[in-house]
Write a structure and sequence with these properties.
This is Large ribosomal subunit protein bL12. α4 packs across α5. The protein has two domains: about 45 residues, no CATH class; about 70 residues, Ribosomal protein L7/L12, C-terminal domain/Adaptor protein ClpS (Ribosomal Protein L30, Chain: A), CATH 3.30.1390. By secondary structure, the chain is α+β, with helices and mostly antiparallel strands. The longest helix is centred in the first third of the chain and has 15 residues. It has a three-stranded antiparallel sheet, covered by helices on one side. It is built from six helices and three strands.
Length: about 120
């Protein structure tokens, strides 16, 4: 069986990112290999990842005058109980929500601003 390299390359060019991700996973499973980058290349890739960050941690930096409203907002955002939410507010500055998208981060910061608190996305 002859391998048509150009045909394979053309198919890869037309594939979606999800299809390519599935292809990589299938190859890893079939041949027992990993597509992880070598350590030296991983360091360079990490620098690129910081430039286009897609995951943010939200830090409550200042509570403001309306502590009770901030506790309620933190509780709503995190789904934690009253005591845990109060502990977060009392411990400010503190990261309380991790791994959120840019849109979610903007929404959370806006909610906290509405009740007089200050938050930042890191």
């Amino acid at each position: 069986m002859a391998l048509d390299t150009q045909k394979i390359i053309d198919q890869i060019k037309e594939a979606t990112v999800l299809e390519l991700n599935d292809l990589v996973k299938a190859i890893e499973e079939e041949f027992g290999v990993t597509a992880a980058a070598p350590v030296a290349a991983a360091g360079a890739a990490a620098g690129d990842a910081e430039a286009e960050k897609d995951s943010f941690d939200i830090e409550l930096t200042e509570v403001g005058q309306e502590k009770v409203k901030v506790i309620k907002a933190v509780r709503e955002i995190t789904g934690l109980g009253l005591k845990e939410s109060k502990d977060i507010v009392d411990g400010a500055p503190k990261v309380f929500k991790e791994g959120v998208t840019k849109d979610e981060a903007d929404e959370i910061i806006a909610k906290l601003s509405e009740v007089g608190a200050t938050a930042t996305a890191k």
